[in-house]
Amino acid sequence: MRSNRHEVVVVGAGPAGSSAALHLAQRGHDVVLVDKSKGPRCRIVCTGIVGREAYEKLDLPRDPVIDTIDRARFFSPSGVEVSYEPRAPMGHVVDRVKFDAALTEQACDAGATLLRGYTARGVETVQDGLKVTLDNGEQRSLHTRALVVATGYQRRLHKMAQLGRAVSYVNGVSADLPFADLDAAELYFGNQIAPGFFAWAVPFGSGKARLGVLTRNGGKAFFRKFLEMEPIRSRLRTDFTNGGVDLIQRRMMSRGIVQGAVQPSYSDRVLAVGEAAGQIKTTTSGGIYYGMIGAGIAAEVLSTALRKNRLSSDHLSTYETAWKARLGGEIDAGFELQRMGGAMSDLEIDELFTALNSGLGPAVRVLIQFDWHQPALRALLKRRASWRLGKSMKTVKGKEVA
Ligand SMILES: Cc1cc2nc3c(=O)[nH]c(=O)nc-3n(C[C@H](O)[C@H](O)[C@H](O)COP(=O)(O)OP(=O)(O)OC[C@H]3O[C@@H](n4cnc5c(N)ncnc54)[C@H](O)[C@@H]3O)c2cc1C
Predict the structure, then answer these.
(1) Binding-site residues, ligand 1, Cβ < 6 A
(2) Which of 160, 275, 284 should be mutated for ligand 1, with most atoms under 8 A from CB?
(3) Mind listing the pLDDT tens digit for each residue in 107-158?
(4) Ligand 1 nearest atom to the CA of residue 48, by list position
(5) For the domain 168-255, what is the CATH code?
(6) Tens of pLDDT along 258-285?
(7) Residue ranges per domain, the chain?
């Protein structure tokens, strides 16, 4: 890198940051993509499911695909099963390390410069731009006309860059483990399993599964309990008594996941993308595709702003309007589902599953899309008279849920 003066610095080479760097470089901008990891990250806490739509609409790398999800099975607390098998596969399970590395390579091929092993520690306004302070044991700084914050759930830069706060967080725990007889994505619901959320087992190549749980609190304890329950325990190819507990302990990874739009997701010369902006499904906490959508919108707005030299927060505010128009409804609907799910008893969840296997099912199933949950959720709520509703579901904290 010859100069320390650039048009755009993107901090974070996850899917969102690499996509933003790619789109900006393709538009002819001088972009530096900075990541604190020295090489491709070796441990990423993520199940790595990327929906079919994302593969169809974006030029995503195929090499990292490990498995394909053709069908899903949902289990209620007492074991009522609802299965869903669409005509075309729902999505792919990717090796996140390879996936992220491939996206970063695409950005570099388009002309972005990669700076690995540097943590961005500071942002300050200077004449005609921003100074971004980087640290790899020694400090250096980059002068830039604009900054894209794509640091995922890590918020070190948000306050300095005058970006907003996350509405809330959930806790995701997962592990790749030897597992038998899994031919579909399986999702488990219930207050003993994952109150208000769910646990999962997803095929991850031959003889392996990615297991996980999403909860508000106590994720690791819920995860251990999930592994002990049937029909999980008997399919785990892990001897609980002989080293298996160590294996689980070593493989288990956990982290917080941002929930809700981070507002503002822009300030003078700055945009946040991906999880750093809250571009995450609040239903499942999937964020790869939404973050890449956000990155595409950010690149479009920022490219115009750079060419017109209109980089004030007033001008960049169109970014938030645009990404919220695309993703905001889904984020709100996911919160609605969280409130509803959190207030349901196990019996009510069982009854909902039973209804989904009868009259309610077809009306909702036709509306299911892997990445867009609002239509199916609205259909479910509209027909709520057809499944028994406990008092808790009609009002949550005194408000109507739909
Ligand atoms: C258990 C679990 C399961 C999940 N499963 C799925 C799933 O199946 N599908 C899905 O779509 N989503 C899933 N997600 C969510 C998904 O992992 C995130 O939405 C996604 O990684 C966000 O991408 P990003 O590019 O915004 O951030 P990240 O992927 O987190 O990338 C941020 C990058 O910024 C770098 N960085 C951070 N701070 C700095 C700094 N100060 N300086 C320099 N570099 C920095 C990091 O090293 C990292 O490379 C899951 C999450 C969890 C926890």
Answers:
(1) 11-17, 34-37, 41, 45-49, 119-120, 150-152, 154, 156-157, 172, 174, 212, 255, 257, 274-276, 280, 285-289, 291
(2) 275
(3) 999 999 999 999 999 999 998 999 999 999 999 999 999 999 999 999 999 9
(4) 8
(5) 3.30.9.10
(6) 999 999 999 999 999 999 999 999 989 9
(7) 5-66+93-167+260-331, 168-255, 334-400
Q: Which residues lie below 8 Å from residue 326, measured CB to CB, with a gap of 6+?
A: 293, 297
The per-residue DSSP string of 267-327 comes to: ETTEEE-GGGGT-S-TTT---HHHHHHHHHHHHHHHHHHHHHT--SHHHHHHHHHHHHHHH
Same fold, 5-66+93-167+260-331 and 168-255: no
Which of 64, 55, 51, 66 lies closest to 98 in space, CA to CA? Answer: 64
Global pTM exceeds 0.85: yes
Query: Which two three-digit tokens encode residue 135?
Result: 């640290």
Smallest CA separation from ligand 1 atom 17, residue: 46
Alpha helices in 110-267 (DSSP H): 219-228, 245-251
On whether the 5-66+93-167+260-331 domain is CATH 3.50.50.60, my answer is: yes
Cα–ligand 1 centroid distance for 164 (angstroms): 18
In terms of Cα–Cα distance, which of 290, 255, 256, 258 is closest to 168? 258
Q: What is the pLDDT of residues 35-86, one digit of tens each?
A: 999 977 778 999 999 999 999 999 899 999 999 999 999 999 999 999 988 8
